[in-house]
UniProtKB/TrEMBL annotation:
Classification via PANTHER family: HTH-TYPE TRANSCRIPTIONAL ACTIVATOR TTDR-RELATED, HTH-TYPE TRANSCRIPTIONAL REGULATOR
Database matches in Gene3D superfamilies: 3.40.190.290, Winged helix-like DNA-binding domain superfamily/Winged helix DNA-binding domain (1.10.10.10)
UniProt cross-references to InterPro entries, sorted A to Z: LysR-type_TF_proteobact-type, LysR_HTH_N, LysR_subst-bd, WH-like_DNA-bd_sf, WH_DNA-bd_sf
Source species: Alloyangia mangrovi
Top-rank taxon: Bacteria
Presence of the UniProt keyword DNA-binding in the record: yes
GO biological process assignments: DNA-templated transcription
Protein name: LysR family transcriptional regulator
Keywords, sorted A to Z: DNA-binding, Transcription, Transcription regulation
Amino acid sequence: MDIVDQIRAFVATAQTGSFTAAAERMGVSNRLTSKYVAELEARLGTRLLQRTTRRVGLTPAGEKLLARAPAWLEELEELLGSVEDEARGFSGVLRVAAPLTFGEIYAADLLSRFAVPHPELSVELRLSDAYTDLASEGIDLAFRIGTLTDNTLKARRLCRFSMKLVASPAYIAEAGVPDGPEALSAHACIHDSNQRSPRWRFGSEGALREVQIASRFAVNSARVARDMALAGRGIAYCPEFVVTADIEVGRLVEVLAEVEKPVHDLHAVYLEGAVLPRKVRALVDFAAEDVKTHLLAG
């Protein structure tokens, strides 16, 4: 008889307190459940359950086995499922949330790459700069930028990225280069209003300084701020993944590159639970590698 079925029957009986309830959980007959447990006891040479007319209790040996058996079964299911997933691919729906600009520039392509080997998997990407409640909105995984404040979620840091000051060559030719952060007050600045403070921050954590800017334009999108900088409207302060490609080809010029700028964390967050669904875990692992070549490349 399969030792796995025997242990499953024992765990179900111990957790429910009866062979009848265990049989219902397993989808087998009461008689077969009792047989599995009896054969496990015979295999181990010791009694695991104390049987009464009303309820089934645990012996000391049964308590010892129950302390570890559920985790062992869970790990076995995870192993077998991962092998099956590699052979057949993931299926079902994967719901992901991300900030707007990050999602448009990177997360959509990330999910496309992840889904290629899984034709039965459907992906739903929700983009918003507002806070997303994973539990109430049915989100499997969310990408969060900056300091995490919700300690009810599990998180994995994927990477860190810095901010960059950028302007078009045409703007620099007309207005010149500021000689320091304080000189930004004399320039047309394009402010991303998703940053709560109307001042721009420079330096590192613990030694940040805020600088007053002349905010000629304000927009709640780093991507639109970058587009306005490309059009020569002023200097924008954007995450590096938004502007690196433009800097590399000369469409934008990095301003005050020698000045230290804040670094932000990118996390993948998900609901805390006993078992993380395999497709969510696979996406987290995939993203941790993908950011190295597609988000921060260059």
